[in-house]
Amino acid sequence: MTPLRYLHLDVFAATAGGGNHLGVVMGAETWSCDAMQRFARWTALVETTFLLPPTDPKASYRVRIFTPHKEIPFAGHPSIGSAHAALACGLAEPRDALLWQECGAGTLPIRVEGHGASRELLLQSPGERVLATGVDAHPLLASALAGIDLGQLPPALVDGGRRWWLAEVADEASLRAWQPDHQAILALATASDSMGLCAFARVSHADRRLVVRAFPAGVGIVEDPASGAANGLIGAYIAHAEPHGPLARGYEVSQGREMGHDARLVVQIDGASIWVGGSSHTVIDGALTWST
């Protein structure tokens, strides 16, 4: 049994241990889908990815993304972490400052900015659509938002690789202190075939202009410490609703502190293109032995 290279990453961390865990396996071309799923179940990480040779001639590499329960076509922090692993292990080189990731959502560009420890990677979302807006957009939405005062933008259901309900909260303190009804969010997620609810609040006195909390009850997670895809949808919604507003060109996000993490995400808005990402750090670089 030939050992494979395995990285355990801290994705979007502002401080050590502050981001989202990701396991990345390289060299598993001969593994079956069942073997990949079994390993992802064993790691018990929110997502585990497998870097493979691309089938699209344009792509730098191909990635398959697994939760402990199923394979998914796309997710934010697994895409950024997989790009970090591909660069760190010499599996890909940027072309015109871009990597091209082949995944279940297509072949997506990832912008490479900087080098070494200061390098940041930003993923272009696979396209966003605002499907519905307003508290009355779904009969279960009001229950999911109970106990919180809303901000200036109406709640919205937005789709773009993943589908989320988004809600702006009136202020940072209220959002950080909020104790949401997770069963109500689960009911909303189930009924609307969505990930769940992602709430955000504006901050005017700090480098990070938005605070975000994400509750992906639709995939069995109570709260997510760093949500790449959800933050991409928030950026798209802000760009759609406030094309000339103070956040229309981009901003930085704080997420995860309510659950003991400290994530920093960067959102760049370039016309109709939304880029979301940040930095990743390799915590463990080792050899994996796994029976397939």
State the main characteristics.
single chain; 292 residues; Diaminopimelate Epimerase, Chain A, domain 1; 2 domains; 17-stranded mixed beta sheet; 6 helices
Helix content class: 10-25%
DSSP strand tally: 17
Largest sheet: 17 strands, mixed
What is the count of structural domains? 2
Low-pLDDT stretches = none
Please state the structural category: alpha+beta
Large-scale geometry: globular
CATH homologous group name of the largest domain: Diaminopimelate Epimerase, Chain A, domain 1
Radius of gyration: 18 Å
Q: What oligomeric state do these chains adopt?
A: single chain
Count of DSSP helices? 6
End-to-end distance: 10 Å
Strand content: 35-45%
CATH architecture heading of the largest domain: Roll
CATH class (first level) name of the largest domain: Alpha Beta
Could you say what the CATH topology of the largest domain is called?
Diaminopimelate Epimerase, Chain A, domain 1
| Arithmetic mean pLDDT | 96
- The SSE string, one letter per element, is EEHEEEHEEEEHEEHHEEHEEEE
